[in-house]
Amino acid sequence: MTPFMLLIGCIITLLMLARPFLYKPIAVYFPAELSSAFTSIWVLFGVIVTLPFFYDSLNPHVLINHPIALCVTAVKGIVLWLLIKYQQVLNKVSTSSSVFYAFIAMAFGTLLMNLFFGENLSPIHLSVIIALGVLGFVFMFKGDLKRLSKKDKLIFAVLVCLMTYAIVADHVSINAFGWYPHLVISTLVMLICSIIYGISKTDLKNILTNPKVIVAGFVYTFGEFVITFANVNIMPVSFVSLFNRLSAPLAMIISAKIYHEQTVKNQALFGLLAFGLSLIIIFT
């Protein structure tokens, strides 16, 4: 792994660490659907601001020549709307559970990409990512998830499936027609889902004027641009996904201290094991 890849990876980890804690108060005081709505609107703002720089990449002929990838990206927009909504439902009751599910999704996504979509990771890297997935399964029975209701555990399982799809979709579509069209189309579809569900005047006012919502939306948008660009362009999707998940160990320890989710010792154990496994990839 090159120093530049490591630098971008650390930025991704810090941005992802901020997300659950910026979204937590919104999860407590606002409906979960509002988070999907404001996220899509703020990412769309980011798209509008950057459009003059990346307009040439939105070549309709290229998109038409990749109809399957185009459909995959459109479906990712629906998946993102659901993903953010259910993450917020889980974040309201367990911040650590709302981030740790992604280790299982990362393992499933990496396996699918290596078996069927041509992402050839080395055996040691593949083994480490699968080990992180196994750690995620252990968390289901020994971590903070064990105290949650059956409904919340079902949401955890749904999030695993949704995130697995999102990881594979990034690999398929970015390889087909680039990161910017993938981001633009998925964001537009996510916004359409929010409009269909319904955005009230009060919701729109909160999206545009509530300081907590604005900060969360800005951080999410900046992070999404960095993450989407880093996929394939800087490093394999699986590596981006790994740096994405490296925020989880820190988030779990902070959750134990602030929100009293399990004990610091319990959360730190899962966090340090995940971090230790990740270091194998970073330094090999």
Rg to the nearest angstrom? 18 Å
Total helix count?
13
Please report the total strand number as a whole number.
0
Low-confidence stretches: none
What does the largest sheet look like? none
- The helicity comes to over 70%
What does this structure look like?
It is built from 13 helices and no strands. It is 85% helix and 0% strand. The N and C termini lie close together (7 Å). The chain has one domain (3-282). The chain has 284 residues and is an all-alpha fold.
How would you describe this structure in keywords?
globular; 0% strand; mainly alpha; 13 helices; 284 residues
Q: How would you summarize what this structure contains?
A:
With 284 residues, the chain is mainly alpha-helical. The protein is built from 13 helices and no strands.
Task: Describe the SSE topology.
Elements: H1 3-29, H2 32-54, H3 60-64, H4 67-93, H5 97-116, H6 123-142, H7 150-177, H8 179-197, H9 201-209, H10 211-233, H11 237-245, H12 247-259, H13 264-282
Helix pairs in contact: 1-4, 1-10, 1-11, 1-12, 2-4, 2-8, 2-9, 2-10, 4-7, 4-8, 5-6, 5-7, 5-11, 6-13, 7-8, 8-10, 10-11, 12-13
